[in-house]
Write a structure and sequence with these properties.
mainly alpha; 0% strand
Length: 103
């Protein structure tokens, strides 16, 4: 399993990383989703991009594709956690995959 970077040392460190102008673009969303799929923690994934979790929640509420990718990232994190705990990858039934990801 890939290693997860440690959290910024302080809230000030996270705010110092903020990009100018303060906009979450497609690349930023992709990096956020990648981190979310590794760690499963919205706040941490948002901090690694220098934004609050609320900023990403705002995008999730307004963009159905981003919301769907968010759910997939959280599912991937849960699968990774289960694999780490049990020592094996869980099996996913076809109906579960369709329910999570659609057809």
């Amino acid at each position: 399993m890939a290693s997860i970077p440690t959290s910024p040392a302080s809230p000030t460190a996270a705010s110092n990383q903020r990009r100018e102008p303060c906009r979450i673009d497609a690349d930023c969303r992709a990096r956020f989703l990648d981190m979310l799929s590794l760690c499963g923690t919205v706040r941490f994934a948002a901090e690694t991009e220098g934004f609050s979790h609320a900023a990403f929640c705002h995008h999730k509420a307004r963009d159905p594709d981003f919301a769907r990718a968010w759910r997939r990232a959280l599912f991937a994190a849960a699968i990774g956690l289960e694999a780490e705990v049990t020592g094996r990858m869980p099996e996913l039934r076809e109906d579960e995959a369709i329910a999570l990801f659609g057809q």
